[in-house]
Amino acid sequence: MMILILFPACRAEEDFSVNIALSQEPPVLDVMLNSSISGKMIAVGNIYEKLLVLDEEGRIKPELASSWTLSEDGKSLSFTIREGVPFHNGDVLEAEDVAASMNRWLDSTPSARSVTGGSYFRETGPLSVEIKGEGKLTFLPVMIASSPQSAVIMPAECIEQAAEDGLVTEFIGTGPYMFSAWRTGEYIELCAFADYKPYADDSSGLWGRKDAGIETLRYYFVPDEVTREMGFEGGIYDAYDCVSSDYLERLEEKGAKILQGGENGSIALVFNKKEGVALDQKFRQAVSLIADRDTLMRACYGDSGFSIHSGYMEKEQSLWLTDREDPYSVRDPERGKELLASSSYDGSTVRILSSNLTNLDKIAIALASSLESEGIDADVTVLDWASFIEKRKDSSSWDIYVSAMTKVPLPQLKTYLSPSFPGWFGDGELLERTEDLNDAGTLEEASMLWNDLQVDLWEYVPVMIPGHYSTIYAVSGDLEGVIISDGFYFWNAYRDASH
Hints:
By secondary structure, this protein is α+β, with helices and mostly antiparallel strands. It folds into three domains: 1-47 and 175-261 and 474-499, Periplasmic binding protein-like II (D-Maltodextrin-Binding Protein, domain 2), CATH 3.40.190; 49-163, Alpha-Beta Complex (Dipeptide-binding Protein, domain 1); 265-469, Dipeptide-binding Protein, domain 3, CATH 3.10.105. Helix content is 26%, strand content 22%. The chain contains 14 helices and 25 strands. The protein has helices at residues 37-43, 95-108, 110-116, 140-146, 156-160, 225-233, 248-253, 281-290, 293-301, 333-341, 360-373, 385-391, 428-436, 443-460; strands at residues 17-22, 52-54, 60-62, 65-70, 76-81, 122-125, 128-132, 177-183, 187-192, 203-204, 207-208, 216-221, 239-240, 257-260, 265-271, 306-307, 350-355, 378-383, 400-406, 463-469, 472-475, 479-480, 483-484, 488-489, 494-495. The strands form seven sheets. The chain has a seven-stranded mixed β-sheet with strand order 8-9-12-1-13-21-14. Strands 16-20-15-19-17-18 form a six-stranded mixed β-sheet. A four-stranded antiparallel β-sheet has the order 4-5-7-6, with helices on one face. The longest helix has 18 residues, at 443-460. The protein is globular, with a radius of gyration of 23 Å. Mean pLDDT is 91; it is low at 1-9 and 11-15.
């Protein structure tokens, strides 16, 4: 095992620590190149900050930017950067760092790059940057605020010194916590940054004042839910994620706080549209009709923590929802078998790939059972998260994979609608219409385009969305100020001495 130490000293005024059990260890902490949920919960907002973030109402708010302006024609976006913001290594944030970070983000985020049309950020002053697009940049601010591949700001020097694989090797940001140590397979430790510079007097969601009253945050990696729960009850952990509905009553009786937000994201059964049996649209339609969505979601979540509806977007995102229904969302095995008989499916084994992350393998097993009940042979491969990420890149090794997809603010940011993301969304006309959403002048115009596009996507079936999840978190009764927003965050947490 290896320990990486970046900074030896933590702030010492308040010698408090919080131990957090996470169901998943991030493969890397380079959250710009990797969109793992655990990586974002550890790094984004704690270690790294962004130019813009979303508050709890979904409004765009400045973080490292003091202001930003979109030109009247929508083709130019400029930022003024906050003055005197320190990095963890003692350097001060400048336009050079912002331009380097944002251009790296564009290079690693195809959806954002498609909006800018190949344009990049440039410095226009010591504390100002600008980007001029070939088309409209209407949606670039919300992408910056909330892309799964996080648009975090780091020193230009860290980017220049990235490893051969492109990953940064030093985790230096402007946030209230500094990276301290990573013991692979065990935990990542952060410590409070004494020179952190707050940017607001109040807070809303992930935006606003950060106090870092807890000296040390230690994130333990505990994939087994029973072990997480027992460790929490035994006082080893102060908080843990992905709480099973089976434990809710007992935890509440013992004085734990049970925290649950809205829909955090969706479960996606992603079809291989590059090669294999799922290349046939009728096969994809058949599977969608044969599988029982309620059974799949209960296999993972039990009786709570999920909802079922046809939308690709989450129910709180009302702008993107429609009254129309997915014609393949209601189970109809007989119709499914008819479609299968008229497809090119030759009776070969359907290969289902899953990770063992947060019971996703149980969904894979339930899917295989549904298919086999209708005479379709199925085989399930379950891997750890890092191995799963690598395996799904190989189109010859699977037909369907099961994954949790975090909530995104724009439908064109759904990774399974990208031709380069495993699953390989390949319909040219639908892909063009997805990209055309970026040319809409307003969110309302984009909403109308999306409503029509989603109907055709339901027919094409790039994925099957059995349901949307609402992650449940448990926090010890004496811990206050924990923020729930597509994850749980501790920069404003504190111990209640009266508890």
